[in-house]
Amino acid sequence: MGVQFILTGEPNQGKTTKLHQILTSLNALGVKTCGFLAPGYWENNQKTGFDLLNLETGKRLALARTENFPQAIHHGRYYFNLEALYEGESILEKVTRNTCDLVVIDEIGRFELAGSVWQKALTNLQVKPEIPVLIVVRSSLIAEVNEFFQIKEPTIFPFRASVNDIINSILSSINKSYPAI
User: Fold this and answer.
1) Alpha-carbon distance 34 to 8, whole Å?
2) 72: part of which helix (H) or strand (E)?
3) CB atoms within 10 A of CB 49
4) Residue 178, SS3 per DSSP
5) Top-tier CATH class for 2-38+51-56+83-173
6) Cα–Cα distance between 142 and 153 in angstroms, integer?
7) pTM for the whole thing?
């Protein structure tokens, strides 16, 4: 299956918040999710970065900040924490059908299109046909991401799609019996 679902929207529209709602409902139905979210990090009412939130363990690390910190890679306006980047790769490399019903990557962007960050792990997931993957992508990058990662015919959920419709679409593809909501 590889990447089967893409949740898309504009920057700062609330994609991660919506994804968290979707995952909370899926988990309540018994769906095992793995991967990570990248919730925004706010200081003085301004987004100054992102964290990496491991969906299996709840472990949270500083992923990116606008201010530099030790052992960081600079890309765009952010400095990316190497420890969090390695943690994200490790999470994705450990994915198997026995441990996970749905892999989640929040989000794929320019850094990955430049061949960095989660690029290698996502490429490897593309060749694991037994595990569906949901990624978050900005609307303006969908065509580039699909081409770069050779994603064929994904189901694309625009931000305005209802949470229940997204959940039901995911449930129907997991090949397990879950009640539709």
Assistant:
1) 19
2) strand 72-75
3) 21
4) coil
5) alpha beta
6) 12
7) 0.90
Question: What is the phi/psi pair of residue 32, to 5°?
Answer: -85, 115
Q: Are 8 and 136 in contact (CB under 8 A)?
A: yes
* The length of the chain, given as a count of residues: 181
- List the one residue out of 16, 27, 47 whose CA is nearest residue 135: 16
pLDDT tens series, the chain, 181 aa:
466 899 999 998 999 999 999 999 999 999 999 999 999 998 898 889 999 999 999 999 999 999 988 889 888 889 999 999 999 999 988 886 677 899 999 989 888 888 777 777 777 777 666 788 999 999 999 999 999 888 888 999 999 999 999 999 999 888 665 555 5
Sequence-ordered alpha helix ranges (H) in the chain: 15-28, 82-93, 110-113, 119-126, 142-148, 163-173
For the chain, the structural domain boundaries read 2-38+51-56+83-173
Query: Is the distance from CB of 22 to CB of 41 less than 8 angstroms?
Result: no
According to DSSP, the β-strands at 60-65 and 72-75 are unpaired
Task: Report residue 51 as tokens.
Answer: 């964290």
**What sign does the CA torsion over 79, 55, 8, 130 have?**
positive
